[in-house]
Amino acid sequence: MTDYRRLRVALLGAGAVGSQVAGLLRQHGDELADRAGATLELVGIAVRDIDAPREVDLPRELLTTDAESLIIGADIVIELMGGIEPARTHILQAINSGADVVTANKALLATHGPEIFDAADQVGAEVYYEAAAAGAIPIIRPLRDSLAGDRVQRIMGIVNGTTNYILDRMDTEGADFADVLADAQRLGYAESDPTADVEGYDAAQKAAILASLAFHTTVPLDAVHREGITAIDKAMMDAARHAGYVIKLLAVCERLTGEASEESISVRVYPALIDRAHPLASVHGANNAVFVQAEAAGNLMFYGAGAGGVQTASAVLGDVVSAARRHIAGGVGVGESTLANLPIVPVGRVTTRYQITLEVDDRPGVLATVAGILSDGRVSIATLEQTVVGSDESGVARLVIGTHKALEQDLSETVDRLAASGVVERVVSVLRVEGD
Amino acid sequence: MTDYRRLRVALLGAGAVGSQVAGLLRQHGDELADRAGATLELVGIAVRDIDAPREVDLPRELLTTDAESLIIGADIVIELMGGIEPARTHILQAINSGADVVTANKALLATHGPEIFDAADQVGAEVYYEAAAAGAIPIIRPLRDSLAGDRVQRIMGIVNGTTNYILDRMDTEGADFADVLADAQRLGYAESDPTADVEGYDAAQKAAILASLAFHTTVPLDAVHREGITAIDKAMMDAARHAGYVIKLLAVCERLTGEASEESISVRVYPALIDRAHPLASVHGANNAVFVQAEAAGNLMFYGAGAGGVQTASAVLGDVVSAARRHIAGGVGVGESTLANLPIVPVGRVTTRYQITLEVDDRPGVLATVAGILSDGRVSIATLEQTVVGSDESGVARLVIGTHKALEQDLSETVDRLAASGVVERVVSVLRVEGD
Fold first, then answer.
1. Contacts of B281 (CB under 8 A, 6+ apart)
2. Is B303 within 8 Å of A304 when comparing Cβ atoms?
3. B148, A31: Cβ pair inside 8 Å?
């Protein structure tokens, strides 16, 4: 065995990911040393409760409740506690005591990223966060390094496994949202409080991180437009299938070039229709995928497990090896470049295609009225399908209108006008169509 | 504009990829400088013929036929000439004159990789080759860095666009190999001499590069088992579809753990059956994809354009930015680790599932004979379908046998024995089944 320099690694947190990281560090120590060019010595694991049950057996002498003492003297600090505090304080302590940091904490990076990256810049430390963007899927290095000579135009990501699991089962089984959610909770795919997932908060955090990196721009979390999937029902799923689409919760990060010469970006999370032939449509179960459109490289897709303790641990350990190599050989880490700092536009200024489903009075002149309102609102009709709802005598028809690209603000005002027009009984759904 | 240090970049070759690299370097100079932390000055482009027509207009004063003079004094040399010589000599010159090298030359790396990486190690230079493995798809950094803390178990890659285009059209249109090949040549998807693609040589070079990186082992090109797709006909495609499979030319790089405690690897390229539900089955047209199974990360897939001038140029420029960062900030490049140096086993010692299609005499006792030969040969039957060929009176039946996992050597000897058994009229096809 080669005689390597020893690097002191401190682990904060021993939950689903942390305990796997500890296990793999100990199990594959020799291989990791060969790849890092340094022996990675796990010097301690900070936990809240030393006696809590864990997925992986950890030597008791490594466990401590004193995170601060552990951080002092560490070369690499791995933060897997989650949440904002005390994770933020510990990461800043680590940076200021000269350590490089590896974290999977998307909530923290999406809210306090600039503070953390600035602190690291001040002292020449590096913060690695591959596991914060899309779990086990390598996306940070491809965006930062492989595409460094290219220009990312758009990212469309399925970045939340819980919602993809729910939508996929609704699609394949024709099941209802509530039933699948209950089942997902029972099987451990969804938390008992599923808000962070089903309302799109988790996806919005990841969208902010991906957009920051892809567009070299600080993207605060509150600049991300966010809608969840709780309004998606069986009827919408059926209608999507009928039209050749599937509904996915997408994180869309887009470079806009509009009429003005100045570039801007849009970052948004919402359920959208996507063509069944699109590579993202075949991402099933709790899997994640990030579809990247770049000026030169064209279309790329990165697919894999978006969550899971051992899967995420793989991404964390990749970062640990990178941090170790940097300790030995120098060089730059993942870093954060915000040199472009493009303006971020609100969702109202985004253009996409839409599918509008209406229930209207089934009498002469109604279609002309609807078409007139759309045209007045600068929303151009691409496809239209009218069907009778219930019996012929119900007097209600269903209109499914596919639009050409329209401005979100125009579309939204037009739908309001349709709802108030007197001929529309009900706006059944308005969904964006992504992926052209 | 920030005042950056200038780095001298020499480009060797101005073909489909080279001319795009030159164009992008000049077009996006400011953005590239911000990302690299250095101004990338294209000091010259070595070509064979200064007056040859090119896809991108290049300033005449940059063109030279004197590659050697261009290399001297360059900080980064981009080799896009292709072929073994003079590319090999120029790369070694560049390394020995202190430059870092970026290359897309898979033929060279698959045959002279160790020599080039050794030369680079001697002087502390780096060789970057993202574009040599799967065109525009970022796969080198994910394998080397993101998965550095994990263990790759298997890679299955669709790494040749021409053959995927041909097989995909045969599958979707029911067309014949020769017709689609002729069409692909007319459309520019296949060369006038298609040997390198359809016989699997190109895929074998990429397999050697991917396996070397994934298993930290020197994989010489002649250790890669290679079969092409020229024997695939419409009947085999139809039979595959009937059984729920699609035929893809796969580069398989596998870690074997067999009975002996010592690990080994297998690297092979051949057309194989893959389940239609597998993510690789939905890779259409000339696209490429690399499916990676890792111990902790689970299943990952990287998808995108495997070839094309501007797409490949994206990967080359990503490497150029990495090389520039290393010049400024230090650190290690892609490198080559062969610390594991696992033994590479011949294809005979690999186990996979098989689908064997036979035409047999349609009379009593034949099935028992066939089953006996399989069983004697340690090949276990998983599925069996018998159909009559032609009219009931033809006296010929078709047997499609799906096997459990069997050793290639056992399978091959068993097929020979079946062919000589007197009851088998014709061995129609023997295909491996991959992707379980």
1. B246, B248, B274, B275
2. no
3. no
